[in-house]
Amino acid sequence: MGRLTRGAVILAATAAGSGRWQVVTVGVTAAELLPDGRWPEPLRPLAGAVELELRPAPGGRGTELAVRPLGGLAALPGMAAHLVGDDPDGYLRQVLRAVRQLVETGEVLRADRPAVERSAPDLPVVPG
């Protein structure tokens, strides 16, 4: 239910004082990214809390997906917000990476877990 504005599709109401845009290029068309106008799964829980904008990526390389929080900036600036875990920009970057991976590969890729998080059978056997 977006409206076309200067080549971009705006998919949420614009609010005064919104936060900083986070942008990712996804290697698919806007129609493939938002089938039937539905937001990709990692973004759905954020409906109403973020503004979403789509525009063609430069050089015909897919679609730029831009997201920013509605309702202003975090209370703490920069590194202070990150250190206490109140970093909406960091969370939005994580969600955008998940959207790109899901759309382009069909799954959200996950790095190997550190050894401290693995169960006993996953740990390497050390000959002794």
* Strand/helix succession: EEEHEEHH
The value of Rg in angstroms is 18 Å
The overall pLDDT average reads: 75
Per DSSP E runs of 2 or more residues, the count of β-strands stands at 5
Could you give a short account of the major beta sheet?
A: 5 strands, antiparallel
Shape: extended
Q: Uncertain runs with pLDDT below 50, 5 residues or more?
A: 1-17
Neighbour order of strands in the largest sheet: 1-2-4-5-3
Helix content: 10-25%
> Which secondary-structure class do the elements indicate?
alpha+beta
How far apart are the termini? 64 Å
Number of helices: 3
Proportion of strand residues? 15-25%
Produce a short descriptive summary.
The chain is an alpha+beta fold. The protein is built from three helices and five strands.
Can you describe what's shown?
The structure is a single chain. With 128 residues, the protein is of the alpha+beta class. Helix content is 22%, strand content 20%. The protein contains 3 helices and 5 strands. A 5-stranded antiparallel beta sheet has the order 1-2-4-5-3, with helices on one face. A hairpin with a 6-residue loop joins β4 and β5. The protein is extended, with a radius of gyration of 18 Å. It starts with a strand and ends in a 23-residue tail after the last helix.
